[in-house]
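Report of the visiting student (M.T.), summer placement. My assignment was to run the structure pipeline on a short list of targets and document each run. The first record concerns HNH endonuclease.
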Amino acid sequence: MRLFTEEQESFIRSHATGLLNQELADLINQKFDLNVTRQQVKSWKRHRKISSGLSNHFPKGHVPLNKGTRGLYNVGGNKTSFKPGHKPANYKPVGYERVDRDGYILIKVSDDGPWQKRWKHKHKMVWEEENGPIPSGHCLIFLDGNKINVKLDNLQLITRQQLARLNQNKLIANDPEITKTGIVMAAIYSKIGELKRESKQ
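After the run finished, the structure tokens were exported:
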């Protein structure tokens, strides 16, 4: 059984570089509402010879920057260490918004925890504030195809099976009404597929 869809595989290939397997798994789960493990991602990458470009080992002769020091408060040692409460120059406050490489708006919701806990997709927050958590096996699409338009009436909850049909048949348009029609057609295609499978049994 195939672990990822073509869309998900393309996403993984484009984001694998520079990320640890756990970080990549977290990103995949956040993006597609999945629950894949670090080991599943590691195995999938290994079979396809996809590398993160990272190394778990220091090169021979490497000398740690803090060698010979005793930490932050050692006089003359670790002069470049951050002091407690220090915020880096690129620090972004809670509530800050940015657009990620895939065109989605992210909003910072916390200063603590891993990346997926600190940043959330704004369109999901808008929808969940009105409707509650997105059900498992479902996702949101933008009816007008514009990922920046996160108004509630532009967000449509569909199943991942419907999404696969929509992408397969290119039924997502720039016109919300056409996309809504495409969702109905996707449901029909799925039903036809089910009937065909049943007839072969």
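The longest strand covers residues 138-142. The chain has seven helices and five strands. I thank the supervising group for their guidance throughout the placement.
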